[in-house]
Amino acid sequence: MKKIMKITLLIPCLLFSMNILAQSIIELPFTPNPEVKWSTDEKEYFSEIWDTQVITNVSVPRLEVYEADQPNGTSVIIAPGGGLYGLSINSEGRDVAKWLNNKGITAFVLKYRLVPTGVDGIKEITDEGNTNPTKIGERVSPVLPLSIADGLAAITFVRTNAKEMKLDPNKIGFMGFSAGGAVTMGVTFNYTQENRPNFIVPVYPWMTVMGDYKVPEDAPAMLVVCASDDPLGLAKPSADLYSAWLTNGKNVGMHMYSKGGHGFGMKKQNLASDNWITQFYSWALTESLTKPTVN
Q1: Which helix (H) or strand (E) holds 62?
Q2: CB-CB contact of 156 with 149 (8 Å)
Q3: pTM of the full predicted structure?
Q4: How far apart, in whole angstroms, are the C-alpha atoms of residue 95 and residue 107?
């Protein structure tokens, strides 16, 4: 963890989503696993299978930085989902970041290390899900610890640089979707005081990949978001996660929507689940994790 973090300034470079610009990209320190090797370059493209922009074959973890025009001190690290084979970079990443920016919250979209795949990782996970689901677990197993380490490194970076970015080191959140939710909870079960998130927001988290877990003694405040009709069966594990925090007397809230499916992110479906991020913001205000915007 002593490797110097690299900062690359963007001279404005379009990042494919609604003319969204990251002010900088941070290369995070990481320890390679010699058993996990990438032979295909990182790639960003539109997946017709998932009908959204994706990134695959991340081998070097990075943060895309989205600074609020009027930062209120709160920051959120965002981990997009994609089964660890890809990142749904817009609806579960950059679009979330820009929404938060409008509320004065500085956002960091985390590109954590992914399963090495061919040129179309989304096709691979889709094919394997249909023909050999066990293989997905086998390929994810050695990579998930690397993804979690990337999440912890992201918190360390934000806390270390909080003062110069006008951020409160005690108001750093971690929000993750699906596989990014697994990263969120992996961070939560493995932090030290240096890289402890102050609040977490697992959104339809992939808890079935996590195995047994124990609620930390100083567990951060948590808001769980999911839909009862999640086709991957993530509603009950999400409810169990909420119950674990509640049973242990920890600060926890939950929004379980009757409809929404899986992977809704910032997509609009004309359902109550479309408003999840507004309800997250209301929760954050209630818990004094952020401040109201000043018009």
Answers
A1: strand 62-66
A2: no
A3: 0.93
A4: 10
